[in-house]
Amino acid sequence: MIRFENVSVQFDQRRALEDINLTLTEKRIGIVGANGSGKSTFVRLLNGLQTATSGRVLVDDFDAAKDGRKLRRHVGFVFQNPDNQIVYPVVEEDLAFGLKALKLPKDEINRRIDEILARYDLTEFKTHPSHLLSGGQKQLLAISGVLVMAPRYIVFDEPTTLLDLRNRNRVERAIRGLDQTVITVSHDLDLIADYDRVLAFDQGKLVLDGKPADVIAKYREMMA
Amino acid sequence: MIAGLYIDGASALHRATAGIKILAMMALGTGVFLIPDWPVVAVVLATVIALYPISGFGRHIIWAQIKPMIWLLLIFFAVQLWLNDWQAGLLVVLRIAAIVLFASLVTLSTKTSDMLASLDRAMVPLKPIGVNPEKVSLAISMVLRFIPVIATVASEIRDAQRARGLDKSILAMIVPLIIRTLKMADDVADAIDARSFDLD
């Protein structure tokens, strides 16, 4: 369960989020909003990449302000641009990066890498230079890099923005197949149309919250 | 380019530990400079070249390593010819070729992660003076990883500026490249944090 208690975030003169009170228990949660609306700040609070100026963010038993490091193992984060998320020059090395941080034995690291590569049809690219993968493959590698660490929650920050339609569909299928609780920030409204709950942000405030059909219809009107 | 150097294989060289290969590279690098006779260095070079097919690397791979340094070797040879004689020129060329080809052979047969793990171990004694081997390894791997990414960004910017007729302006190239690289550095730092890398 995720709980926001009177959460505000202030950047210099700008208030990025204002007094958010919220409890999230659903398995699929979509986040929408214009650029600069506060939606990315909202999800960055979930794994301690951003700390609240006031209020509290709780994810299960973790307090985001106090348990940042533990929380990052509990909440995975997939960024918009996979090129900025893939750290190692070779596919298997990048997958091992997070696992080494977990101090897992070598056999377990290799087992998890093989399993995740097979899951996303990337086995043939195991020893491939990561920069030579296609955009879709890179995004799947970025997702794999998070999944191998077995987080309980996964945040996707605009995961399909840079992809063509075929790769966008591949990534959508990958997200759909996850067992974890998924929180997806997206301008791609079709991606979150069948989610359990959608939140809309505007100028740092939570302005819409409910079932996707209602929220997306109202959000389209707002943005018209 | 750089990141793509490793080629998977099962040869003895592939199986040898990265530490041994790095030590061999250091020994060869020092050794060829202690040998004053070009025929002996030529034998060393021939041995290094022979290791390529033994390790499963074909002629085109050997050529790919030699091709970028041909002009440099010719310049070195010409300078030595001018200052000394052709034997001195040949000695310098053979030494450099042997070192570069052996270094390439090591990178072709060693995964970056294995190389960095060896580096980690070698740097452990430096911990008391404040060197963090994990940080150094991560920095090196990121240099290897982001050279092709930054090259792609540079190419995109060059195309965009060319489309605006600014292809001769160095400033129009450098400024957006620096801004995008700095932004990328911020995002990468976030991604590393998000993947639980512990800097302490």
- Please report the total strand number of chain B as a whole number: 0
Pair with the biggest interface: A-B, 32 and 28 residues
Largest sheet of chain A: 6 strands, mixed
How many structural domains are formed by the residues of chain B?
1
Summed over residues and divided by their number, the pLDDT of chain A gives a mean of 91
Low-pLDDT stretches of chain B are none
Structural class of chain A: alpha/beta
Going by helix content, strand content and strand pairing, the class of chain B is mainly alpha
Strand order, sheet with most strands of chain A = 6-7-8-3-9-10
SSE map:
The complex is a heterodimer of chains A (224) and B (200).
Chain A: E1 2-11, E2 14-24, E3 28-33, H1 39-44, E4 54-59, E5 62-63, H2 68-74, E6 75-78, H3 91-101, H4 106-119, H5 135-147, E7 153-157, H6 165-176, E8 181-185, E9 197-202, E10 205-210, H7 212-223
Parallel strand pairs in A: 3-8, 3-9, 6-7, 7-8
Antiparallel strand pairs in A: 1-2, 1-4, 4-5, 9-10
Helix pairs in contact in A: 3-4, 3-5, 5-6
Chain B: H1 12-15, H2 18-34, H3 38-54, H4 59-66, H5 70-83, H6 86-109, H7 112-123, H8 133-163, H9 170-194
